[in-house]
Amino acid sequence: MLSRFVAPIRYYLRLTTFLVGLAANAMFGAIMALPMSLVGKGKDNQWLVARSFVNTVAPLVGVKFRVEGREHLDKANPAVLVGNHQTMVDILYMGAVFPKGTSVMAKRELQWTPILGQWMTLSKAVFVNRAKREDAVKVFAKVAAKMKKNSLSLWIFAEGTRSASPTPSLLPFKKGAFHLAVQAGLPVVPIVCENYAHVYHAKAKRFNDGEIVVRVLEPIPTGGYTSSSADIARLTELTRDRMLEAIEDLGRKRQEQLRLAGGQGHGEGEREALLAGQAGRASTSGETASARIEAPSE
C-alpha cells in the first residue's frame, strides 16, 4: 500500500532534481563559454557541461552508466554521432559518452528555452529550422565545412523526436544526419542507449535506482556514398539496422536480468518494467517537461 505513494513521490523529487541540475549546469556552461573561447577551448564547452551534468546529477537520481565500446570514439574523430532518443533522461547518457570537440544539432525552437537555450547559443550548438528544408540544407553545407576545418564532431538524434517506448525499439530515422556525414566526408558512429524503462518511465511515474548500459558501435565509413537519395537511404538503413540489433540485444540481456530480479522479490518498478517488456513493443506515450534535442527533417 505504502509503495503506491513512495514511487510517485520519488519520481517527482528526482524529476525536480534532474531539471534543477540541468538548469544549473547550463548556467555553468554559459558562464564558462567566454573564458574557454578566449583560451582556445571553446569547442569543448559542451563536453564540459555534459560531463559536469552526468557527474553531479546522475548520483543524485540514483542512475549509473556502463559504457561499452568507448574505444570506437577514438577511432573516428571527428564524426557524426547518431544516438537513439527515448526521453529527456537521454541528456544523462549523452554525458556518459560525449567526446571532446563535439557539438549538438537542435531544433531552432530550443534556442529560446530559458537558460538552456542561452547556453547552447553561447556554446555554438547548431540550430536548424525543421519546417524549412532549404534552410536545413544550407545549414548542413556550412556545418560540414566547419566540421572539417575545426575537427568538430556533431551529435544528432536521428529519430527526430523521443520514442518514450517502454520496450527496446527505434522510430524511423530522419536522413539529415546522413546527408551531413556524406557532405563532410566523415564516418557515422552509432551510439545506442538501452531501453531504460526499468529506471525511468514518465507515464508510470517511475524513477528508480539502476544501471543503464550505453553501447558505442563500430564507425561506419561514408567514403563510398554519394549525396544521391539512394545512397543516403542505404546509409540510413544500415545505421538504423545496426542500432536496432544492438538495442534489441541489450534489451534481451536486461529482460533476463529483470526476470531474475523479479523472481527474487526485488522492486515493484523492476517487475512493472518486466511486464511491459513481455507485452511486446508498445506505442509511444507522451511525456512532461523536457529539453528536446532533435534532428531536422529530411
TrEMBL record:
SMART domains: PlsC. It catalyses: a 1-acyl-sn-glycero-3-phosphate + an acyl-CoA = a 1,2-diacyl-sn-glycero-3-phosphate + CoA. Keywords: Acyltransferase, Lipid biosynthesis, Lipid metabolism, Membrane, Phospholipid biosynthesis, Phospholipid metabolism, Transferase, Transmembrane, Transmembrane helix. GO terms for cellular component: endoplasmic reticulum; membrane. The chain crosses the membrane at residues 12-34. One of its GO terms (molecular function) is 1-acylglycerol-3-phosphate O-acyltransferase activity. Its EC number is 2.3.1.51. This is 1-acyl-sn-glycerol-3-phosphate acyltransferase.
